[in-house]
Design a protein that fits this description.
2 domains, PmbA/TldD fold, alpha+beta, 5-stranded mixed beta barrel, globular, about 425 residues, 7-stranded mixed sheet
């Protein structure tokens, strides 16, 4: 079947997104290999306009029978769809690199297993009794978008990730480090793993702060709550609905001048890097917050059309907490980066007479994050006299990002992979902490 010909004959407009995903993952639990999982998936999403109405459908597989079902489902959807208010992409962009799949194929499972043994040997040599969990993954991804308006975009990428986590006493929490890069690992990330082992040792005792306003060090792994709330605030969908707390605030100061955030979708090291979004719009670097000042909102094609703005490659099949081929497109940041500062994590800790360091948070989804509010359980450490005293237990933090992040005392100088982006450690002056 000639899919492009079928699309032109059936619909006024059509946009076909095709994805091939090939990944291999090794999981270690309590030092022992638990799973070796290989996935090789073909999936597709189709959006159409017929008789002025929009329709959509998605599928797994690429057989002719599956594609016929994809077309028929989209056709049926358009019978009852909303009026079409935007045109699909007419961009052309070829970013397909022949060598990308070779990197994936030239990293066989045996090589990955050997590297896992190196990581395990390094941690075992630290001389402590630890429960160790590891996830090591390689992923090859191809994406292709064709539209009946002559849009034709294609790219591919390979990425490798290593997640090392150590459960803390008491259960229910882990300390971890994530490493992501476009080439396979040539060495054990010993410096960060030593810090992780040190933290796990400090987690064996409980130490609680007093209740009150305290300085808080947020780890890169915990900052997803900041990014999720900010994405909701700058989303063109919420600007259009007039539900965003950032409505009409472009050019205004919303955070401390020490905080700058840039969307860098083509950052080479990022696993989420991409040259075009899920609507076939080329991505570009954008300043979101510059020295605390709000610079840009983000749009997909629908809300760019509704607000008469330009779509700049921020239409993704991603919700706040998940993504998938059958997910509707919404405005999102591709690869947000909090620009690094000049402080080290160790310097931040040494400066605190009394405070906490948050490694992870629990319960954020039940907060009113759309308005920037948070009230969550904090997992991490109590700090006194410039030293980590012990782990937190039943400690809560609460506040609003647009108020509390006006007072940032220090920004870390090293970036780490986090929630769809890269972040440093942040020291924020006065967060409400419920401790003893």
């Amino acid at each position: 079947m000639n899919i492009r010909q079928e699309l032109k004959s059936r619909f006024d407009q059509a946009e076909l997104l095709q994805v091939r995903e090939n990944d291999f993952k090794i999981t270690v639990e309590n030092w022992e290999i638990q799973d070796l999982v290989h996935n090789d998936l073909e999936k597709a999403a189709l959006r159409v306009v017929r008789d002025g109405r929009s329709g959509s459908n998605s599928c797994f597989g690429d057989s002719e029978e599956t594609l016929i079902s994809l077309l028929e489902g989209a056709e049926e959807s358009a019978r009852y769809g909303d009026p079409a208010i935007f045109d699909y992409s007419e961009e052309e962009l070829q970013q397909f690199e022949e060598g990308e799949e070779e990197k994936y194929q030239q990293t066989p499972p045996a090589m990955m297993l050997d590297f896992l043994e190196e990581v395990k040997g390094f941690i075992a040599g630290a001389g402590q009794e630890l429960t160790l969990n590891i996830s090591l993954q390689k992923e090859y991804l191809e994406e292709k978008i064709e539209t009946t308006r002559a849009g034709d975009l294609r790219e591919n990428k390979t990425s490798f990730s290593l997640m090392v986590s150590l459960p803390v006493p008491g259960g229910g929490s882990e300390l971890g480090r994530l490493f992501v890069q476009p080439e396979f690992f040539d060495r054990v990330p010993d410096e960060e793993l030593l810090k992780l082992i040190f933290e796990q040792g400090k987690s064996r005792e409980v130490s609680l702060p007093e209740t009150g306003k305290l300085p808080v060090i947020f780890s890169p792994r915990s900052l997803y709550f900041l990014m999720i709330a900010l994405i909701e605030g700058i989303s063109g969908a919420n600007i259009y609905r007039e539900t965003s707390p950032l409505l009409g605030r472009l050019g205004e100061k919303i955070f401390s001048e020490k905080l700058s955030i840039t969307d860098r979708p083509r950052m080479e090291a990022a696993g989420s890097r991409r040259s075009f979004d899920d609507e076939g719009i080329p991505t570009r670097e954008q300043s979101i917050v510059n020295r605390g000042e709000l610079q840009n909102y983000i749009y997909d094609l629908e809300y760019a059309a509704r607000l008469e703005e330009e779509a700049k490659g921020n239409g993704l099949k991603r919700t706040l907490f998940s993504e998938g081929i059958d997910t509707p497109v919404r405005p999102a940041l591709i690869n947000p980066v909090i620009e690094p500062g000049s402080s080290s994590r160790e310097e931040m800790i040494e400066e605190l007479e009394e405070g906490i360091m948050v490694e992870n948070i629990v319960g954020f989804h039940s907060s009113n994050y759309q308005q920037g509010h948070f009230s969550v359980q904090a997992h991490g450490f109590h700090i006194q006299a410039g030293e980590i005293q012990g782990r937190l237990e039943d400690v809560m933090i609460a506040g609003n990002i647009y108020q509390d992040f006006q007072e940032i005392a220090a920004v870390g100088k090293t970036l780490y992979p986090g929630y769809y982006g890269y972040y440093p450690y942040l020291l924020v002056e006065g967060i409400q902490v419920t401790g003893q």
